[in-house]
Amino acid sequence: MTLSTTRxxxxxxILDRCRExxxxxxxxxxxxxxxxxxxxxAFSLGWxxxxxxxxxxxxxxxxxxxxxxxxxxxAGGDAAEAVPGAVAVELIHTFSLIHDDIMDGDETRxxxxxxxxxxxxxxxxxxxxxxxxxxxxxxxEAPGPGGPAAVRHLARALGDLxxxxxxxxxxxxxxxxxxxxxxxxxxxxxxTHKTGSLLGCAxxxxxxxxxxxxxxxxxxxxxxxxxGVAFQAVDDLLGIWGDPxxxxxxxxxxxxxxxxxxxxxxALSAGHPAARRLDALLSSAVPLDDLAAQRAADLIxxxxxxxxxxxxxxxxxxxxxxxxxxxxxxxDAREELLTLVPYLVDRTG
Length: 349
Fold this sequence. Notes:
Blueprint: H1 11-30, H2 35-44, H3 63-74, H4 83-104, E1 108-109, E2 112-113, H5 115-119, H6 121-140, H7 147-171, H8 184-209, H9 214-241, H10 244-247, H11 253-256, H12 262-268, H13 273-283, H14 290-302, H15 305-325, H16 331-345
Antiparallel strand pairs: 1-2
């Protein structure tokens, strides 16, 4: 679908506008935390350094905030109605990143030390827990009749998110090939739960708080879930082939960690001769050095893993567009969603 871009906001402008709308409520919410947790949260959100002074850290793209705001507008509501939902999903997203970094042993996040490296594991766990609780209370206190349904929606998404994280962790103990190997469709299920659930929830919460009909809420949630799977596929591509200057991660970072991502799993299941060489390389007890990681990346590409991940992303992008076409939406917000979604898939970092 090709739409005229005359006088239409670009995706970065849409993201900036939505962040600016939500930011005061985010600051107010974080300010309600215990000072220790508030300091850690401000660090995780990129607002402050470890010394409490304003820091240069990245504040993230604000994708979930934007989906919540556009969800409300697409349903014919006012953007302000979505703010409690936008705050809640951003707090949950931050909580999940804090805990993910601890579980994965990742020492950096957005070109800075991960929270657990900067503050310690215990304080990081507590800060994540505090953000979780704050997200639920923020949504429960939302004005209007949509609050209780929104809380139920968030609870379901949280269940899915935790399920997806469990799947991801369990993948680590499974072999690269043979009986018990992780297959691409299992990875897709994991991505739907771990990444898609919160993106889908964000769009749905905005619509829910704006009083949208159930069909609109469901269509926006499903579109967000498809966007989440596409977003994860692109993350996987960047984890192998991304530019470190853009992603903030070392080159071949996912390969060095022997992380089971979609390009790798698609390559291993392709039946290509390069897949056997890739399996042998990844199954070796020897850690991947620079040369071996580059060799693995080349074999993944040769076996079709890179192309498969690109195709996966664009397939789910098309599915998200179909979801948006299924229900009547406010045209200006629909156009902004159609501007934002491909930007998230075609990004470089």
